[in-house]
Amino acid sequence: MKCVYFAWVRERVGATDEEIAPPAEVRTVGDLIGWLVSRGENYAYAFENARAIRAAIDRKHVKHDALIAGAKEIAFFPPMTGG
Question: Which residue segments constitute the domains of the chain, with CATH numbers given?
Fold first, then answer.
């Protein structure tokens, strides 16, 4: 699956996007964040406040308990404000 990072998440991870293959036990967005954090300091820094990170699966906003099975793309971004 493809992971896409936006705004300061992208800056902290150090990549715009990447192809990933998480292990089978990674079933939800929250699990995926935990797995990404284990990949290195840059990910740990990007997701240090995981509750603040928003996610989208195949361009639909989802909560951290959403299942990732079958997802082609998962995007992570900071909270947005409107005006």
Answer: 2-71 (3.10.20)
